[in-house]
Amino acid sequence: MGWVLLLLMRTIVPSQTVIAQKSVSSLSKFPVAELKEDAILLKKILEANHPSLYWHTSKEELDSSFNRLLISLNDSLDEIAFKNRIAGWVAQIKCGHTSTLYSKSFLKNLNQYRYPRFPLQIKFWEDSAVVLSNGYTKDSIIKRGTIIKQINGLPVSWYRNRLFQQISNDGNAVNHSYQVISNGFPDLYKQVFGLDSAYLIGFLDSKGKSDTVSLGNFSPVPRDSLIKRPQPPIARPEISKRQMRLLSIRSLSIDTVTHSAYLRLTSFSKGSLKSFFRRSFKKLKKENIQHLIIDLRENGGGKISNSINLTRYLTNKPFKVADSVVATNRKLKYGKHIQHSWMYWLAMNLGAHKAEDGSIHYRRFERHYFQPNTNNAFKGQVYLVQGGYTFSAATLVVGALKGQDNIKVVGEESGGGYYGNSAMHIPNITLPNTNIRVRLPLYRMVIDSNRPKGSGIVPDIKIPPSSTAIREGWDPKMAAILQMIQSKNN
Q1: Contact present, 280 and 316 (Cβ < 8 Å)
Q2: How far is it, in rounded angstroms, from Cα 391 to Cα 365?
């Protein structure tokens, strides 16, 4: 059961690009008039095209918050500071697909803005904050698994709550925010709070007693300054870059002794998934696999067609994608500021239909029932592992299968909404003065109107992170699932 050990020793921290701040003085600033012009234009574009702008937050609340935003734009700002202001307002829409991005030109120069930065990577959940890594690897005090209580005299919850205000979630599914700040805390700290000359870290020592230590900003040692020592040749199996890329998206491991398998999917966007699913489920049937673990913790979604394809191998009944898939309009007002607006206009005219009330419906996903796959369908026990990064199309899979007799949803609340979301086509808005970008979903999708609105998918078996597991480097979710498999086999 070699793959079991690898899974148990693996702590998952999905990747997501977060930008850090070099210094305010190093970035050019935009005059107040241009900042306000961009903000007002963004509000107009969202009001004209966003399908569920007031789904979770009322118009009165958003308008009032926007007025406060405009009042706050009383001095020139650089791109980082302005993006922080815009992201704070956009996050109040509570749509995970409506998020704020830096300009393309800023991203091209990403590396020069990243360092120096806060030295600790920290894992957050509920009221806990635990060190994942320390830039100062030889530090014998603050190590992986150390519980952090304060930074510069303020509780870590203060920093968490401030950063939460920058992150777009589906409704109140805040587990997504926990994952985002856990993945990029050093960069987010610098982006929102700037740099300090040093950081007073309050922590619990190995005996559970409170203590403090001072850490400086971290910058990696340039590669050229490292001492190069000759390395002994290591025999490695030849693997192409394409194979490595595919393995980063999807992989299947099988243990014939316990009749179990582990399927990891980090995306539904790429990876030739249709053929991969066909080969994988054929293999599962041939090997008489009875337990299938599907790990969706890093899966932020992608093509709905791929999520449908996977669901068909696992479901025991016909299913449809959603109760309703509706757009406000297909004219895309302010189209010159919307990425490839003519392409989306064409797609919405060819694939969607106008209802009597003037709304635009994507009928196929509303009406068509997809049938279970009769060839190589999996009938054994399935464990769907999810977390805060389980989003969009990945949420469709879990939501469609949750409650089925042979399905167990394990882990933490999903980041994607259980009731629905706004997605399908998602072009970027580019603001003309600052070139800040905001994602614009064009369809409102009510997956199941009978589900509770505002939360993610609550797992059948909740297994939160553990400071002990982080310190020792094992995966509590996988450990629990493997114990369940062992119990069933016995």
Answers
A1: no
A2: 18
Cα angle 348, 349, 355 (rounded to 5 degrees) comes to 90
Query: Which domains are seen in the chain, by residue range?
Result: 2-10+241-489 (3.90.226.10), 24-112 (no CATH), 115-218 (2.30.42.10)
- Pick from 350, 406, 413, 430: nearest CA to 178: 413
- 87-129: pLDDT as tens digits: 999 999 999 999 999 999 999 888 788 899 999 999 999 989 9
pLDDT digits (tens, 9 = 90+) for 250-271: 999 999 999 999 999 999 998 8
- pLDDT tens digits, 154-174: 999 999 999 999 999 999 999
The pTM (predicted TM-score) of the whole model is 0.90
Given this model, what pLDDT does residue 269 score?
Answer: 93
